[in-house]
């Protein structure tokens, strides 16, 4: 939604460049001066009426942009000899084809910037297929062609700038402001506007004051959640380890879909954290009609598939009712209803026991934390927040756990070193920090796995101020896509970059790396809130599996798919061989 609003603004912002190219060729000095004046501090005011002053950024009288990023005073900058030359937004290199189409963008305004991202994804996937390249490689080819800052002139929405240099990523984060804005999933947003009567999104997708309110409400309960449920999380992991034992075939492989079993494990764990209830999807063979929990799981799976389809295609669902869109509505409705039921039960339990929450009391569940206290949320908002949490939390953890097992099975020497560390470990379930302290090599494995395959491979920001990246002046309001995975796979940032080498994260080696070269959980005030939960879950399960089994993998390389949350692109046929 925000993107759709900003797109309108950005369209006008580009006109001086699109139509006045020749004029600028003769006015180079003026252009550089103007671009420099727009550096990080400059934000347009209502008084700026000269067309030249508005080059490369939003028109000054735009109310919407002002609403999202409140206006600050313009500080004129004087160009001294020491100032490096700043190039305009139009000089940013990128594929030309889309530029010609940009003249028709105003006629297609309701489709939006996300479509350009969709086209980008489809293009990269086709390129990968035609050139028989690894999916992770095709994005880096773009940077090889155009340099570390690539501009996509969108024919139908706002332009996109793609970056992969750790210095630039760091600079974007330092300029993100107090209430950072990321691009959201348009499909989920449309669903909420049309089918949920403009309900707020969950923490991942809201902005501004609502984001601040939700984040403040959730930050502590999510931190405490791990401590509250450490035993339960360990039990779920034990369940998974036992299920693998029961499901193995004669080759010691799990013949059914191992990814799906990991998904159920993640669902049971996050279910425990969110609802404070023991879900038992791992023990349940799916008979959908029989219980709410199975339906919740089934709806989550189907809603995820539908969102992936809607987000990665050509966004036709914005114009027509496509099967993917119908499926999204059906399963998001189902998720909403089922989660709503849990929230209502929690509400009733609260009113029955007349629970209260003063400032120092730790709530006994995440739902209760949201329903109690001074800034308590209404039931509908709580249901939305939980839906987003399930969609992000369950899928990201499933992705990382799958790749962690794959990497351990593939790199036998690493697995042996890990076994030396955890083989005889007795896990003290009173304190997760002590478990982490006793397992530095395992923590390095988790980190290295997330470097190689971050479940969310690109992060986005829409900045409140102009930013200069690699000498190019990028106007505020531009969608900046940070290809963090590409940064993490670059030889210039990590030697032997595509190899799984946990040792690189052990002291003193860790100092060698740029702190923004691998940021799987993001950074800053909008950083992932589930990092501790994710690391704890992966620690508990890996310890149990490595203590009991030797992992092996004998098939072709597994790559992450290019979807909004990465998945393995082929079956996880890992062998779980009993340790004697
Ligand atoms: C391996 C697992 C996970 C990874 C790699 C991961 C990664 C991320 C990333 C990259 C972001 C965006 C950060 C940014 O824009 O700078 C994010 C946001 C978020 N994550 Fe995670 N995540 C994981 C698991 C979880 C779990 C288990 C939960 C909760 C149960 C969770 C809840 C959230 C929330 C609520 C946000 C939005 C925060 C905000 O906008 O303020 N994540 N995550």
Summarize the topology:
Blueprint: H1 2-13, H2 15-19, H3 21-25, H4 28-37, H5 63-68, H6 97-101, H7 113-131, H8 135-146, E1 149-152, E2 160-163, H9 166-174, H10 186-195, H11 208-247, H12 258-275, H13 292-312, H14 323-353, H15 366-371, H16 379-410, H17 412-422, H18 432-438, H19 440-452, E3 459-462, E4 467-469, E5 472-474, E6 479-482, H20 484-488, H21 531-548, E7 549-553, E8 574-578
Parallel strand pairs: 2-6
Antiparallel strand pairs: 1-2, 3-6, 4-5, 7-8
Helix pairs in contact: 7-8, 10-14, 11-12, 11-21, 12-16, 13-14, 14-16, 16-19, 16-21
This protein binds protoporphyrin IX containing FE.
Explain this structure.
By secondary structure, the protein is mainly α. The protein has 21 helices and eight strands. 51% of the residues lie in helices and 6% in strands. A hairpin with a 2-residue loop joins strand 4 and strand 5. Helix 7 crosses helix 8 and helix 11 (208-247) packs parallel to helix 21. It is globular, with a radius of gyration of 25 Å. The model is unreliable at 1-76, 100-112 and 126-133 (pLDDT under 50). Its cofactor is heme. Belongs to the cytochrome P450 family. InterPro entries: CYP11_CYP27_families, Cyt_P450, Cyt_P450_CS, Cyt_P450_E_grp-I, Cyt_P450_sf.
